[in-house]
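Thread: adenosine-5'-diphosphate complex, take 2
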Amino acid sequence: SVPLSFFGGLGAASGQGILLKGSNYLEAMANLDTVVFDKTGTLTTGKFQVTSVDPLAGTKEELLELAAYGEFHSNHPIAHSVKEAYGKALDPSMVGAAEEIAGFGVKTSVYTQNKETELYIGNARLMERQGIAVNAADSMAGTTLYIADKNTYLGSVTISDTIREDVPQALKGLRAAGVKKLVMLTGDKPEVGKLVGEKLGLDEVHGGLLPGDKVGKVEELLTKKHKDAALAFVGDGINDAPVLARADVGIAMGQIGSDAAVEAADVVIMTDELTKLVDTILIARKTVGIVK
Ligand code: ADP
Ligand code: MG
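Output below.
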């Protein structure tokens, strides 16, 4: 049976917009030694600014419009950012079915001049997969989105994200609460990941990961942590539901990307304040302390 004061702990947490799916997660949160973060939308805002648009032919406006149509059906933070940067209304009858390729980008059909064009928008890995040669330099600092039709490279859009304001404070709070290892995993380019990791003083950063690679990294970190302590993964649920499920404590927070994420998570934080993680640990410690 569950000691009564656990309900007090779960209740205190829910009053703060923190939902725990069981009292066992209170115990795990009271004793975390590794916290693994997804990058986009978790440590960064997920609101990318477009820093350059480089069409191979035609105008920047045309390429950005095409990119916005390419992202029409996508719920990824990158997709929202591109659509916002284009800023004009999109005609739903212009786009056909879309296929989201996790860790790569999206494939869509766009109808222009009475013909259907197969459109690809995503990273260098997606272009390579499609066998499309990209004659453009990958920007070091930014995230580059390549746009191509079935056979031809059409141009690129470079975007860049910023670190969430409350992240340094939240990380400091986690360290103060005794968390030993702070790790970031990202599907974005290793160079972008490295920059964010250095700014935040993280212990480990792994970039260029596909969703399955993120699971592998978490499994590796699980073998390295103290056996009586827990590992938490924190993400927004976009392309990271499998890792949320694999961690001792999967924490979904912010603009949670999907119902699958809410299902895969053990803890759901209803706001995007990362400092809520520290609050959760403190509530958990208080509750577990009372029980013991
Ligand atoms: P993160 O691990 O940083 O949260 P994801 O795993 O969601 O990132 O995505 C990894 C990479 O895949 C992105 O940096 C981007 O290059 C590409 N990508 C994913 N979804 C999209 C999309 N909708 N449009 C364009 N590129 C995308
Ligand atoms: Mg993500």
